[in-house]
Specification:
Blueprint lengths: L5 H13 L3 H12 L2 H17 L1 H5 L5 H19 L2 H13 L6 H14 L3 H12 L4 H8 L3 H20 L4
């Protein structure tokens, strides 16, 4: 006799689908927000949304792009609501101060993180997903729900800003 209730099995199925993607969601949220607490809040908000829409979630394959899109929408909503541009930049600076690795590579990576934080949210997302997370243009287009050509434009503009900022650095 099976003692597992349908609710329990549905809960464990949700857990099994979500768990492998938590680290990736957190990394993406941190790259968008630049702050540990903001990233944790974004992931939590995203998971609440996923649980509220679990019937839709359970029918998706693959689930990761949909969760990334949900996280991105939570980020944009917060950005618009609180206009957190300055807070995000300060958060990136604070996170860099706590790093103990003082090699040139770490400094360079820190500079790039700062410059990514200065991009518009859509440019930041395109650059982060493509150059850091390794998503394809097609996958990013699906996550952001914009045409592939628009993704390429945001990616190009974001990279251009970063390149210009790096060229002004005295190293």
């Amino acid at each position: 006799m099976n003692n597992i209730s349908p609710v329990g099995s549905k809960k464990s199925a949700m857990h099994a689908l979500i768990r492998p993607h938590l680290q990736s969601l957190y990394r993406y949220a941190f790259r968008l927000s630049g702050q540990k607490s903001a990233a944790e809040d974004l992931v939590q908000d995203t998971l609440v949304y996923v649980l509220e829409h679990q019937d839709k979630f359970m029918s998706l394959d693959p689930v990761k792009p949909w969760m990334m899109r949900c996280l991105y929408h939570r980020f944009v909503d917060n950005y618009r609501r609180y206009n957190r541009y300055e807070v995000l930049s300060e958060g990136l600076l604070e996170s860099l101060k706590t790093q103990e690795d003082s090699t040139e590579t770490a400094f360079f990576a820190g500079q790039i993180r700062i410059f990514i934080g200065l991009l518009t949210p859509v440019q930041r997302t395109a650059v982060t997903l493509f150059d850091i997370e390794g998503y394809t243009i097609t996958e990013i287009s699906g996550i952001l729900e914009i045409p592939e050509g628009t993704v390429k434009s945001h990616l190009s503009r974001g990279r251009k800003v970063i390149k210009e900022k790096l060229s002004m650095q005295p190293f």
